[in-house]
Protein backbone atom coordinates (compact mmCIF):
# COMPACT_ATOMS: atom_id res chain seq x y z
CA UNK A 1 0.00 0.00 0.00
CA UNK A 2 1.49 3.38 -0.94
CA UNK A 3 1.15 6.09 1.68
CA UNK A 4 -1.53 8.69 1.22
CA UNK A 5 -4.25 10.32 3.18
CA UNK A 6 -7.85 10.73 2.27
CA UNK A 7 -10.92 12.11 3.97
CA UNK A 8 -12.21 8.59 4.47
CA UNK A 9 -9.26 7.71 6.78
CA UNK A 10 -9.77 10.85 8.83
CA UNK A 11 -13.54 10.50 8.98
CA UNK A 12 -13.14 7.17 10.79
CA UNK A 13 -12.60 9.36 13.88
CA UNK A 14 -15.86 9.52 15.84
CA UNK A 15 -14.56 12.36 18.04
CA UNK A 16 -14.87 10.42 21.27
CA UNK A 17 -11.80 12.19 22.71
CA UNK A 18 -10.34 9.02 24.23
CA UNK A 19 -6.98 9.83 22.64
CA UNK A 20 -6.53 12.98 24.71
CA UNK A 21 -5.78 11.04 27.89
CA UNK A 22 -2.12 10.38 27.04
CA UNK A 23 -1.34 13.07 24.49
CA UNK A 24 1.77 14.92 25.67
CA UNK A 25 1.14 18.02 23.55
CA UNK A 26 -2.52 18.26 24.62
CA UNK A 27 -1.24 18.19 28.18
CA UNK A 28 1.04 21.12 27.39
CA UNK A 29 -1.47 23.26 25.52
CA UNK A 30 -4.82 22.00 26.83
CA UNK A 31 -6.46 23.15 23.61
CA UNK A 32 -8.45 20.92 21.29
CA UNK A 33 -6.12 21.58 18.36
CA UNK A 34 -3.13 20.25 20.30
CA UNK A 35 -4.58 16.75 20.57
CA UNK A 36 -5.20 14.03 17.99
CA UNK A 37 -8.92 14.76 17.60
CA UNK A 38 -8.30 18.45 16.91
CA UNK A 39 -5.46 17.74 14.50
CA UNK A 40 -7.59 15.26 12.56
CA UNK A 41 -10.40 17.83 12.36
CA UNK A 42 -7.94 20.40 10.99
CA UNK A 43 -6.60 17.95 8.43
CA UNK A 44 -10.15 17.02 7.44
CA UNK A 45 -10.98 20.70 6.95
CA UNK A 46 -7.85 21.15 4.86
CA UNK A 47 -8.57 18.17 2.61
CA UNK A 48 -12.20 19.19 2.09
CA UNK A 49 -11.02 22.74 1.35
CA UNK A 50 -13.14 24.19 4.12
CA UNK A 51 -9.96 25.47 5.74
CA UNK A 52 -6.97 27.21 4.22
CA UNK A 53 -3.41 26.34 5.26
CA UNK A 54 -2.82 29.22 7.67
CA UNK A 55 0.36 29.48 9.73
CA UNK A 56 -1.61 28.56 12.88
CA UNK A 57 -3.03 25.41 11.28
CA UNK A 58 0.42 24.42 10.11
CA UNK A 59 1.81 24.84 13.63
CA UNK A 60 -0.76 22.38 15.03
CA UNK A 61 0.22 19.81 12.41
CA UNK A 62 3.92 20.26 13.19
CA UNK A 63 3.69 20.47 16.99
CA UNK A 64 2.50 16.86 17.28
CA UNK A 65 5.50 14.93 18.62
CA UNK A 66 4.43 11.79 16.71
CA UNK A 67 4.62 9.64 19.83
CA UNK A 68 1.73 7.34 18.82
CA UNK A 69 0.09 7.39 22.28
CA UNK A 70 -3.25 8.41 20.73
CA UNK A 71 -3.31 5.43 18.36
CA UNK A 72 -2.84 3.01 21.20
CA UNK A 73 -5.94 4.45 22.92
CA UNK A 74 -8.12 4.89 19.86
CA UNK A 75 -10.93 2.29 19.80
CA UNK A 76 -11.19 2.66 16.00
CA UNK A 77 -7.46 2.38 15.36
CA UNK A 78 -7.29 5.67 13.49
CA UNK A 79 -3.75 5.98 12.12
CA UNK A 80 -3.19 9.45 13.55
CA UNK A 81 0.56 9.63 13.02
CA UNK A 82 0.22 8.64 9.36
CA UNK A 83 -2.40 11.38 8.95
CA UNK A 84 0.01 13.87 10.53
CA UNK A 85 2.89 12.72 8.29
CA UNK A 86 0.67 13.12 5.25
CA UNK A 87 -0.48 16.52 6.50
CA UNK A 88 3.15 17.62 6.73
CA UNK A 89 3.74 16.39 3.19
CA UNK A 90 0.94 18.72 2.06
CA UNK A 91 2.33 21.56 4.18
CA UNK A 92 6.09 21.54 3.54
CA UNK A 93 8.50 22.81 6.18
CA UNK A 94 8.64 26.59 6.23
CA UNK A 95 9.63 29.13 8.87
CA UNK A 96 13.26 29.80 9.72
CA UNK A 97 14.22 26.85 11.87
CA UNK A 98 12.25 24.12 10.11
CA UNK A 99 13.43 25.28 6.71
CA UNK A 100 17.00 25.37 7.99
CA UNK A 101 16.64 21.83 9.42
CA UNK A 102 15.24 20.61 6.10
CA UNK A 103 18.23 22.13 4.26
CA UNK A 104 20.75 20.58 6.68
CA UNK A 105 19.11 17.17 6.49
CA UNK A 106 19.06 17.16 2.70
CA UNK A 107 22.73 18.17 2.74
CA UNK A 108 23.65 15.42 5.24
CA UNK A 109 21.72 12.87 3.19
CA UNK A 110 23.87 13.65 0.15
CA UNK A 111 27.17 14.05 2.01
CA UNK A 112 27.07 12.11 5.32
CA UNK A 113 30.86 11.85 5.76
CA UNK A 114 31.43 15.56 5.14
CA UNK A 115 28.52 16.43 7.49
CA UNK A 116 30.09 14.33 10.23
CA UNK A 117 33.45 16.09 9.81
CA UNK A 118 31.75 19.50 9.93
CA UNK A 119 29.84 18.45 13.08
CA UNK A 120 33.15 17.38 14.64
CA UNK A 121 34.84 20.64 13.73
CA UNK A 122 31.97 22.62 15.28
CA UNK A 123 31.76 20.77 18.56
CA UNK A 124 34.39 22.78 20.45
CA UNK A 125 33.52 26.11 18.87
CA UNK A 126 29.97 26.72 17.71
CA UNK A 127 28.06 24.07 19.75
CA UNK A 128 29.11 25.36 23.20
CA UNK A 129 28.13 28.88 22.10
CA UNK A 130 24.74 27.70 20.74
CA UNK A 131 24.16 25.65 23.90
CA UNK A 132 24.97 28.65 26.16
CA UNK A 133 22.63 30.84 24.12
CA UNK A 134 19.88 28.22 24.42
CA UNK A 135 19.67 27.63 20.64
CA UNK A 136 20.36 23.89 21.01
CA UNK A 137 19.05 21.92 24.00
CA UNK A 138 22.02 19.55 24.37
CA UNK A 139 25.69 19.82 24.94
CA UNK A 140 26.72 17.63 22.00
CA UNK A 141 29.80 15.49 22.11
CA UNK A 142 30.67 14.15 18.66
CA UNK A 143 32.94 11.09 18.81
CA UNK A 144 36.29 10.91 17.09
CA UNK A 145 35.07 8.25 14.65
CA UNK A 146 31.59 6.95 13.88
CA UNK A 147 30.73 3.33 14.64
CA UNK A 148 31.16 2.44 10.98
CA UNK A 149 32.08 4.01 7.72
CA UNK A 150 32.32 0.86 5.64
CA UNK A 151 31.12 -2.74 5.65
CA UNK A 152 32.15 -4.41 8.90
CA UNK A 153 31.74 -8.05 9.93
CA UNK A 154 32.36 -9.38 13.46
CA UNK A 155 32.81 -13.12 13.83
CA UNK A 156 32.22 -15.24 16.93
CA UNK A 157 34.32 -18.25 17.87
CA UNK A 158 31.43 -20.64 17.29
CA UNK A 159 28.70 -19.30 15.03
CA UNK A 160 25.02 -19.87 15.89
CA UNK A 161 23.57 -17.34 13.44
CA UNK A 162 24.00 -14.11 11.52
CA UNK A 163 22.51 -10.75 12.49
CA UNK A 164 22.48 -7.49 10.57
CA UNK A 165 22.82 -4.35 12.65
CA UNK A 166 20.84 -1.29 11.61
CA UNK A 167 22.97 1.25 13.43
CA UNK A 168 20.84 4.36 12.88
CA UNK A 169 22.26 7.90 12.87
CA UNK A 170 22.22 8.52 16.64
CA UNK A 171 24.17 5.34 17.43
CA UNK A 172 26.53 5.73 14.49
CA UNK A 173 27.39 9.41 14.89
CA UNK A 174 26.69 10.25 18.54
CA UNK A 175 26.82 7.04 20.62
CA UNK A 176 29.09 4.55 18.85
CA UNK A 177 29.86 2.96 22.25
CA UNK A 178 26.26 1.65 22.31
CA UNK A 179 26.77 -0.05 18.95
CA UNK A 180 30.05 -1.52 20.21
CA UNK A 181 28.21 -2.90 23.27
CA UNK A 182 25.56 -4.54 21.09
CA UNK A 183 28.19 -6.09 18.83
CA UNK A 184 30.02 -7.39 21.90
CA UNK A 185 26.82 -8.97 23.29
CA UNK A 186 25.83 -10.56 19.99
CA UNK A 187 29.30 -11.96 19.29
CA UNK A 188 29.43 -13.28 22.87
CA UNK A 189 26.18 -15.14 22.17
CA UNK A 190 27.68 -16.67 19.00
CA UNK A 191 26.22 -14.38 16.32
CA UNK A 192 28.15 -13.14 13.35
CA UNK A 193 27.30 -9.43 13.14
CA UNK A 194 27.19 -7.56 9.85
CA UNK A 195 27.18 -3.79 9.52
CA UNK A 196 26.60 -3.36 5.81
CA UNK A 197 27.97 -0.64 3.60
CA UNK A 198 25.07 1.38 2.22
CA UNK A 199 22.88 1.85 5.29
CA UNK A 200 21.36 5.33 5.25
CA UNK A 201 19.14 7.27 7.68
CA UNK A 202 15.91 5.37 8.38
CA UNK A 203 14.00 8.39 7.04
CA UNK A 204 11.95 9.22 10.16
CA UNK A 205 13.46 12.72 10.64
CA UNK A 206 12.78 13.49 6.97
CA UNK A 207 9.14 12.40 7.24
CA UNK A 208 8.76 14.47 10.37
CA UNK A 209 9.61 17.55 8.28
CA UNK A 210 7.28 16.59 5.44
CA UNK A 211 10.18 15.45 3.22
CA UNK A 212 8.37 12.37 1.98
CA UNK A 213 10.23 12.03 -1.32
CA UNK A 214 13.57 11.89 0.49
CA UNK A 215 12.17 9.37 3.00
CA UNK A 216 11.08 7.13 0.09
CA UNK A 217 14.57 7.28 -1.45
CA UNK A 218 16.15 6.36 1.89
CA UNK A 219 13.69 3.51 2.46
CA UNK A 220 14.43 2.11 -1.00
CA UNK A 221 18.18 2.19 -0.35
CA UNK A 222 17.90 0.50 3.05
CA UNK A 223 15.64 -2.24 1.74
CA UNK A 224 18.04 -2.87 -1.12
CA UNK A 225 21.03 -2.97 1.25
CA UNK A 226 19.55 -5.11 4.03
CA UNK A 227 17.55 -7.57 1.95
CA UNK A 228 20.78 -8.93 0.40
CA UNK A 229 22.42 -9.88 3.69
CA UNK A 230 20.91 -13.25 4.42
CA UNK A 231 20.63 -12.42 8.11
CA UNK A 232 18.11 -14.02 10.47
CA UNK A 233 17.16 -10.62 11.92
CA UNK A 234 17.86 -6.93 11.49
CA UNK A 235 18.40 -5.52 14.99
CA UNK A 236 18.54 -1.88 16.07
CA UNK A 237 19.15 0.01 19.30
CA UNK A 238 16.73 2.75 18.23
CA UNK A 239 12.95 2.10 18.38
CA UNK A 240 12.28 4.88 15.87
CA UNK A 241 14.51 3.14 13.31
CA UNK A 242 12.69 -0.14 14.01
CA UNK A 243 9.33 1.60 13.58
CA UNK A 244 10.46 3.09 10.27
CA UNK A 245 11.75 -0.19 8.87
CA UNK A 246 8.85 -2.27 10.13
CA UNK A 247 5.84 0.02 9.88
CA UNK A 248 6.66 3.02 7.69
CA UNK A 249 8.45 1.24 4.84
CA UNK A 250 5.43 -0.92 3.94
CA UNK A 251 3.36 2.27 3.82
CA UNK A 252 5.95 4.16 1.77
CA UNK A 253 6.96 1.42 -0.64
CA UNK A 254 4.64 -1.53 -0.20
CA UNK A 255 7.76 -3.51 0.76
CA UNK A 256 9.28 -4.53 4.04
CA UNK A 257 12.30 -6.23 5.52
CA UNK A 258 11.84 -9.49 7.38
CA UNK A 259 12.44 -9.80 11.10
CA UNK A 260 13.28 -6.24 12.06
CA UNK A 261 13.56 -6.13 15.86
CA UNK A 262 14.39 -3.81 18.70
CA UNK A 263 17.23 -5.09 20.81
CA UNK A 264 15.13 -6.03 23.86
CA UNK A 265 12.73 -8.14 21.80
CA UNK A 266 15.65 -9.88 20.09
CA UNK A 267 17.52 -10.66 23.29
CA UNK A 268 14.56 -11.47 25.54
CA UNK A 269 14.44 -15.18 24.68
CA UNK A 270 18.13 -15.54 23.95
CA UNK A 271 19.49 -14.69 27.41
CA UNK A 272 19.03 -16.57 30.67
CA UNK A 273 19.80 -15.62 34.25
CA UNK A 274 22.59 -18.23 34.41
CA UNK A 275 24.53 -16.25 31.78
CA UNK A 276 24.21 -12.91 33.57
CA UNK A 277 25.85 -11.56 36.71
CA UNK A 278 24.41 -8.67 38.73
CA UNK A 279 26.02 -5.36 37.88
CA UNK A 280 27.84 -3.61 40.69
CA UNK A 281 26.30 -0.24 41.68
CA UNK A 282 23.12 -0.99 39.74
CA UNK A 283 20.99 -2.82 42.23
CA UNK A 284 17.85 -0.76 41.71
CA UNK A 285 16.83 0.84 38.43
CA UNK A 286 13.90 2.80 37.02
CA UNK A 287 12.93 2.01 33.43
CA UNK A 288 11.80 4.68 30.96
CA UNK A 289 9.59 3.44 28.08
CA UNK A 290 10.42 5.13 24.76
CA UNK A 291 7.15 6.18 23.08
CA UNK A 292 7.73 4.33 19.82
CA UNK A 293 8.61 1.19 21.73
CA UNK A 294 5.62 1.11 24.05
CA UNK A 295 2.90 2.67 21.88
CA UNK A 296 3.79 1.82 18.29
CA UNK A 297 5.79 -1.41 18.63
CA UNK A 298 3.91 -2.60 21.72
CA UNK A 299 7.09 -3.71 23.52
CA UNK A 300 6.76 -3.28 27.28
CA UNK A 301 7.50 -6.57 28.98
CA UNK A 302 10.75 -7.58 27.27
CA UNK A 303 13.06 -4.83 28.58
CA UNK A 304 11.69 -5.27 32.09
CA UNK A 305 12.27 -9.02 31.94
CA UNK A 306 15.85 -8.42 30.80
CA UNK A 307 16.54 -5.93 33.58
CA UNK A 308 15.33 -8.46 36.16
CA UNK A 309 17.37 -11.22 34.50
CA UNK A 310 20.43 -9.00 34.89
CA UNK A 311 19.83 -9.05 38.65
CA UNK A 312 18.54 -5.50 39.11
CA UNK A 313 15.41 -4.59 41.03
CA UNK A 314 12.93 -2.54 39.00
CA UNK A 315 11.50 0.46 40.80
CA UNK A 316 7.99 1.26 39.65
CA UNK A 317 7.83 5.04 39.24
CA UNK A 318 4.33 5.02 37.72
CA UNK A 319 5.78 7.28 35.02
CA UNK A 320 4.91 6.50 31.41
CA UNK A 321 5.07 9.87 29.70
CA UNK A 322 7.01 11.11 26.70
CA UNK A 323 10.51 12.48 27.40
CA UNK A 324 9.96 15.25 24.83
CA UNK A 325 12.86 14.39 22.53
CA UNK A 326 11.14 13.55 19.23
CA UNK A 327 14.32 14.07 17.12
CA UNK A 328 14.18 17.45 15.38
CA UNK A 329 11.14 18.26 17.54
CA UNK A 330 13.47 19.04 20.46
CA UNK A 331 15.03 21.80 18.32
CA UNK A 332 11.85 23.14 16.73
CA UNK A 333 9.60 23.12 19.83
CA UNK A 334 12.07 23.86 22.60
CA UNK A 335 9.56 24.84 25.29
CA UNK A 336 7.24 21.86 24.93
CA UNK A 337 10.22 19.52 24.64
CA UNK A 338 11.88 20.95 27.77
CA UNK A 339 8.66 20.92 29.80
CA UNK A 340 8.05 17.26 28.99
CA UNK A 341 11.66 16.42 29.83
CA UNK A 342 11.48 18.24 33.16
CA UNK A 343 8.30 16.39 34.19
CA UNK A 344 9.90 12.99 33.52
CA UNK A 345 13.31 13.95 34.87
CA UNK A 346 11.67 15.12 38.11
CA UNK A 347 10.01 11.76 38.68
CA UNK A 348 13.11 9.73 37.84
CA UNK A 349 15.38 11.95 39.92
CA UNK A 350 13.14 11.45 42.97
CA UNK A 351 12.91 7.66 42.47
CA UNK A 352 14.93 5.49 44.84
CA UNK A 353 16.89 4.00 41.95
CA UNK A 354 20.62 3.84 41.27
CA UNK A 355 20.11 4.57 37.57
CA UNK A 356 17.55 5.12 34.83
CA UNK A 357 17.55 2.62 31.98
CA UNK A 358 15.87 3.15 28.63
CA UNK A 359 15.94 1.53 25.19
CA UNK A 360 16.42 4.55 22.97
CA UNK A 361 19.51 6.72 22.35
CA UNK A 362 17.29 9.80 21.91
CA UNK A 363 15.52 9.33 25.28
CA UNK A 364 18.95 8.77 26.84
CA UNK A 365 20.23 12.07 25.46
CA UNK A 366 17.10 13.97 26.49
CA UNK A 367 16.73 12.54 30.00
CA UNK A 368 20.47 12.80 30.56
CA UNK A 369 20.25 16.59 30.34
CA UNK A 370 17.66 16.78 33.13
CA UNK A 371 18.62 14.01 35.53
CA UNK A 372 21.64 15.11 37.53
CA UNK A 373 21.67 12.74 40.50
CA UNK A 374 21.99 9.39 38.70
CA UNK A 375 23.20 8.06 35.37
CA UNK A 376 20.93 7.29 32.41
CA UNK A 377 21.94 4.19 30.44
CA UNK A 378 20.74 2.35 27.37
CA UNK A 379 19.64 -1.17 28.26
CA UNK A 380 22.40 -2.64 26.09
CA UNK A 381 25.02 -1.15 28.44
CA UNK A 382 23.48 -2.98 31.41
CA UNK A 383 23.23 -6.23 29.45
CA UNK A 384 26.78 -6.01 28.14
CA UNK A 385 28.14 -5.59 31.64
CA UNK A 386 25.94 -8.36 33.05
CA UNK A 387 26.91 -10.76 30.24
CA UNK A 388 30.49 -9.90 29.41
CA UNK A 389 31.70 -8.06 32.54
CA UNK A 390 33.15 -4.55 32.37
S1 LIG B 1 1.04 11.34 18.17
FE1 LIG B 1 1.35 11.93 20.33
S2 LIG B 1 1.52 14.18 20.29
FE2 LIG B 1 0.61 13.57 18.31
S3 LIG B 1 -1.62 13.70 18.63
FE3 LIG B 1 -1.00 11.57 19.07
S4 LIG B 1 -0.64 11.51 21.31
FE4 LIG B 1 -0.66 13.67 20.68
S1 LIG C 1 -9.73 8.12 20.16
FE1 LIG C 1 -9.77 7.78 17.93
S2 LIG C 1 -11.91 8.03 17.37
FE2 LIG C 1 -11.70 8.91 19.42
S3 LIG C 1 -11.29 11.11 19.04
FE3 LIG C 1 -9.29 10.09 19.21
S4 LIG C 1 -8.71 9.59 17.09
FE4 LIG C 1 -10.93 10.03 17.09
Topology (SSEs and partners):
Layout: H1 7-10, H2 24-29, H3 36-47, H4 55-62, H5 69-73, H6 80-90, H7 96-110, H8 112-122, H9 126-132, E1 152-154, E2 161-165, H10 168-174, H11 176-188, E3 191-195, H12 204-208, H13 212-227, E4 233-236, H14 239-253, E5 260-262, H15 263-268, E6 284-288, H16 291-296, H17 301-309, E7 313-315, H18 329-332, H19 334-350, E8 355-358, H20 361-370, E9 376-378, H21 379-388
Parallel strand pairs: 2-3, 2-4, 4-5, 6-7, 6-8, 8-9
Antiparallel strand pairs: 1-3
Helix pairs in contact: 3-6, 7-8, 10-11, 11-21, 13-14, 19-20
Bound molecules: iron/sulfur cluster (2 copies).
Residues 23-26, 35-36, 39, 64-70, 80-81 line the site of one iron/sulfur cluster.
Describe the structure.
The protein has 390 residues and is α/β, with parallel strands linked by helices. Among the domains are: 7-87, Fumarate Reductase Iron-sulfur Protein, Chain B, domain 2 (Orthogonal Bundle); 273-388, Rossmann fold. Helix content is 51%, strand content 9%. It has 21 helices and nine strands. The protein has helices spanning 7-10, 24-29, 36-47, 55-62, 69-73, 80-90, 96-110, 112-122, 126-132, 168-174, 176-188, 204-208, 212-227, 239-253, 263-268, 291-296, 301-309, 329-332, 334-350, 361-370, 379-388; strands spanning 152-154, 161-165, 191-195, 233-236, 260-262, 284-288, 313-315, 355-358, 376-378. The chain has a five-stranded mixed beta sheet with strand order 1-3-2-4-5, sandwiched between helices. Helix 14 links the parallel strand 4 (233-236) and strand 5. Helix 10 (168-174) packs across helix 11 (176-188) and helix 11 crosses helix 21 (379-388). The longest helix is centred in the C-terminal third of the chain and has 17 residues, at 334-350. It is globular and about 65 Å long. 46% of the residues are buried. The model has no long low-confidence stretch (mean pLDDT 91). It binds iron/sulfur cluster (2 copies). The site of one iron/sulfur cluster has 16 residues, from helix 2, helix 3, helix 5 and helix 6.
Amino acid sequence: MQSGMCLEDISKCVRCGGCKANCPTYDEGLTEAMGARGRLALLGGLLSEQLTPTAALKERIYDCILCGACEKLCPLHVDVTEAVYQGRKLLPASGGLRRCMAFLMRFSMKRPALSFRVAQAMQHTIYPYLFRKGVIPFSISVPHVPLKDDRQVYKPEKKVGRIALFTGCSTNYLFPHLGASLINVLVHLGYEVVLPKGEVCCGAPFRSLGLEEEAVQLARKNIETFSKLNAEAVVSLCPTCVLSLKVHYPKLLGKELNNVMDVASFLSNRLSSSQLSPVRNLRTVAYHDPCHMIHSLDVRKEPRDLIRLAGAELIDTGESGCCGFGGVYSLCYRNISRNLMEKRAGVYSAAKADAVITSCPGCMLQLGTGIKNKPVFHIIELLEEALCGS
